[in-house]
């Protein structure tokens, strides 16, 4: 069984294999720098549905089904799917996966859900009770704006610190068989809250959580940034990435500048695509991980990465009640 190192890191004896991965995105994401790595690009943001929420469910289902097909499996071969999203009661996942007939474990980690689902799926494999599971998540620009900010018809102005919620989904099939890429270790994050209340500055709210997870993991394992090809954060964007590097250097003496990459800065061209501080949303880190990073490991471009997806643990209710925005980051070490 897995070995606990330090407080929150678990080394996995089973080395769960990521048998396959799939990423599907919307048109704006398909026009960005990573366009060639996605499995499917939906030109129509409604995905043929009559609501944004149904469109997100359709997109998530497409990612999961594609990952299963790439693994040369069927839905009946999958023993559980771990998935969640940003919509109330995770309806993107609930309704998207209800017809597949796969046992379902719903998760909520906000934008950290891809890392959280990988952590839970890995522990399921590690337990010996599961042989094939799926980890997935999604987000949609229009459904997220509608729920957390304003309806699109309102036409509200976005400040420079705001990020653009990615319309995208990522899914991985994990198995107990040996292969590459594989998950070597996981790190369950700790909630961090520095009192940020600005919903248009998510990077500032999530950066302390990313700093906590990265510094704790390096301490737990006795490793340094140079031991990894990349330390990949989920979606803290330009402002959050700057804050993360400053916090790590000032408080821990850790310099990650040479290996740090943020999915929110990778999926869009911030200079030409009008996304302000970068991308965000569950689908941001999920679609980038399930394209650029995992495909890169398969192709030999990368050997090992630390994936630390970040999430803002807020809700429309908590924001209206004047609550601050707690952050969380879960870590996954993926090797090839």
Describe this structure in words.
The longest helix is centred in the middle third of the chain and has 20 residues. The strands form three sheets. Strands 1-2-10-15-14-11-12 form a seven-stranded mixed β-sheet, with helices on both faces. The chain has a six-stranded mixed β-sheet with strand order 4-3-9-7-5-6, with helices on both faces. Helix 2 packs across helix 3. The model has no long low-confidence stretch (mean pLDDT 94). The two termini are 21 Å apart. The chain has 336 residues and is an alpha/beta fold. It has two domains: 173 residues, 3-Layer(aba) Sandwich (Peroxisomal Thiolase, Chain A, domain 1); 154 residues, 3-Layer(aba) Sandwich (Peroxisomal Thiolase, Chain A, domain 1). The chain is globular, with a radius of gyration of 18 Å. The protein is built from ten helices and 15 strands. Helix 7 links the parallel strand 11 and strand 12.
Give the CATH superfamily of the largest domain: Stage V sporulation protein AD
Lateral strand order in the biggest sheet = 1-2-10-15-14-11-12
As a whole number of angstroms, the C-alpha radius of gyration is 18 Å
Low-confidence stretches: none
- Fraction of residues in β-strands: 15-25%
CATH topology of the largest domain: Peroxisomal Thiolase, Chain A, domain 1
């Amino acid at each position: 069984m897995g070995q606990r190192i330090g407080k929150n890191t678990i080394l996995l004896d089973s080395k769960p294999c990521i048998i396959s991965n799939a990423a599907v995105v919307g048109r704006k994401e398909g026009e960005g720098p990573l366009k060639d790595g996605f499995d499917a690009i939906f030109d129509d943001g409604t995905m043929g549905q009559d609501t944004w929420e149904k469109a997100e469910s359709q997109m998530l289902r497409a990612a999961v089904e594609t990952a299963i097909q790439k693994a040369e499996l069927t839905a009946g071969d999958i023993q559980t799917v771990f998935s969640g999203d940003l919509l109330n009661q995770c309806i993107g996942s609930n309704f998207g996966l209800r017809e597949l007939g796969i046992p379902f474990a719903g998760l909520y980690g906000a934008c950290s859900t891809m890392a959280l689902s990988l952590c839970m799926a890995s522990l399921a494999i590690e337990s010996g009770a599961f042989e094939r599971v799926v980890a997935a998540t999604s987000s949609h620009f229009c459904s997220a704006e509608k729920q957390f900010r304003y309806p699109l018809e309102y036409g509200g102005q976005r400040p420079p610190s705001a990020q653009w919620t990615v319309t995208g989904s990522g899914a991985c099939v994990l198995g107990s068989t040996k292969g590459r890429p594989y998950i070597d270790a996981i790190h369950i994050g700790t909630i961090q809250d520095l009192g940020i209340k600005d919903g248009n500055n998510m990077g500032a709210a999530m950066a302390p959580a990313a700093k906590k997870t990265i510094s704790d993991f390096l301490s737990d394992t006795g490793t340094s940034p140079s031991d990894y090809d990349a330390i990949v954060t989920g979606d803290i964007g330009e402002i959050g990435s700057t804050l993360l590097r400053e916090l790590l250097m000032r408080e821990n003496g850790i310099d990650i500048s040479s290996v740090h990459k943020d999915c929110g800065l990778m999926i869009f061209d911030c200079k030409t695509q009008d996304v302000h501080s970068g991308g965000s949303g569950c689908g941001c880190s999920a679609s980038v991980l399930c394209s650029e990073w995992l495909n890169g490991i398969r192709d030999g471009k990368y050997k090992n990465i630390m994936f630390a997806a970040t999430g803002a643990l807020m809700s429309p209710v908590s924001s209206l009640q004047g609550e601050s925005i707690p952050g969380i980051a879960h870590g996954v070490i993926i090797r090839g």
